[in-house]
Amino acid sequence: MTHQPPAVSDPDPEPPAPGRPPDDAPPPTSPPGRTIAGPDHAAPRWWSERRLPAAAAALLVLAASAFTLFDVARVRTGHTAAAWRKTLADELATRPIDDPWVITGAAVAAALGLFLLVLALTPGRRHLLPMAATADPDGPRAVLDRDGAARLLRDAALRVPGVSHADIRVRRRRINARAQVTFRDLDTVRTEVTGALTAQLDALALAQVPRLTVRARRHGP
Amino acid sequence: MNSHSVLNRTLLAVAGLVLLGGGLLVLTGALDLYRRWNLEPPADWPLTSPHDTIVPAQDRTRWTDEGWWWPTVIAALAILMALALWWLLAQLRNRHPGRLPVGNPPCDGVELHDSALADALAADTARLPGVHTAHANLTGQADHPHATVDLTLEADARPRDVLHALESTLHRARQSTGWEHLPTRAMLRVSPHRPHRAE
User: Fold this and answer.
1) What is the CA radius of gyration of chain A?
2) Angle A87-A88-A94 (CA atoms, 0-180°, nearest 5)?
3) What does the UniProt keyword field contain (chain B) (predicted)?
4) Interface of B with A in 154-193 (CB under 8 A)
5) Strand bridging mode B131-141 / B144-153
6) What's the rounded Cα separation, in Å, for the pair B54 and B44?
7) Which residues of A touch B176 (CB under 8 A)?
8) How far apart are CA A131 and CA A142, in angstroms?
């Protein structure tokens, strides 16, 4: 937000309509089609703040440095060092590095370091599917929860006559749908479920439409 | 990515590099890979033989008799502790913009509290068709506030329509505050429900 006066000389170029939201002027979007993720509608993933790993790492460093500082200060004031520090120094000084404990510790440290690097460099928030940006550049940037998408798709599949049960797995790039069919022709139901899910996927307005796989199975007598 | 995310990710990457580097250094020496793979470590490279220890006693006591050693150790530990405490506390606080100027150009003496705007946004959004509940939050600084809106949709909602409706709600928020921009993120969930067949 900038507080410079607008470039137009009129101080209030867009007087708000009293009492009525301006939603009677629909944004100039194309009619809903399958390709909603055009190149100019790129919606990047949301980047997690990584608060929890950061808090855990900070807590560990804090605890380690606090204990060490406390013990160093104790020794400086004439007390004896704590047992854990003596043991640690002794072990670090005597155990050769091909000792199984040292190798295990080093392997764990390396794996943890790799994990932290992955956390630092990847966006995270894998359970959120970015939605296509609206035509208005100031419009909201939205994401849809994967579980929510699965619920909406399940309902769409269940509306097809003959489907008694639908199991929808929404992944980031693929959607696997399995329908149990109690009556009607299996192929017809599969085609109709595919149509219903495709229509519902369009209503979800995802930036990158996952690939849809539909399987139908006869259920019951 | 906001500054908070950049800080956390930078520090996590540093911690990860330290752990990974240290672990690999010990593993390379322990498994005697320098000899097996005919690698020539640089001079004074630590931990080149499987019989080395991580901190030999003569290394540990090398400077302990020097007058500067213990003050330096204590100062370094204190600084590390203070930084870790600051990093930890940074995770716990949410930055809210506080009082926001209203109008374009801003009117003197008129301010809007961020929670008031968030409540108004949430109330407006919750009334949209297909929206079950809505929560809004304002973050960032007073001259660049960001809004986040968490929506829980009804079972029969169409996210595309909800998004378009939300667009006009935000347009109205910008009009009523006089701001040109209000960057907004919306997270859409769907309320858990039993299978729902009715159109």
Assistant:
1) 29
2) 85
3) Membrane, Transmembrane, Transmembrane helix
4) 155-161, 163-172, 174-176, 179-190, 192-193
5) antiparallel
6) 14
7) 16
8) 5
Domain ranges of chain B: 1-56, 99-190
User: Domain spans of chain A?
Assistant: 51-121, 143-218
Are B47 and A54 in contact (CB < 8 Å)?
no
- CA separation for the pair A164, A138 (Å, rounded): 43
Q: Which amino acid is at A135?
A: A
pLDDT in tens, chain B (199 residues): 677 889 999 999 999 999 999 999 999 988 888 888 888 888 888 888 888 888 888 888 888 888 898 899 999 999 999 999 999 999 987 778 888 888 777 778 888 888 999 999 999 999 999 999 999 999 888 888 889 999 999 988 999 999 999 999 999 999 888 888 889 999 999 998 887 765 5
Higher-confidence residue: A56 or A4?
A56
Q: Per DSSP, which regions of A16-97 are E strands?
A: none
Fold designation for A143-218: Alpha-Beta Plaits (3.30.70)
Can you tell me the distance from the alpha carbon of B35 to that of B54, in angstroms, rounded to the nearest whole number?
A: 19
- Asked whether residue A105 carries a pLDDT value surpassing 60, the answer given is yes
ipTM of the assembly? 0.83
List chain B residues with CB under 8 Å of A95.
Answer: 53-54
Question: Residue B1: its pLDDT value, please?
Answer: 64
Task: Write phi, then psi, for B17 (nearest 5 degrees).
Answer: -65, -40
Architecture field, domain B99-190: 2-Layer Sandwich (3.30)
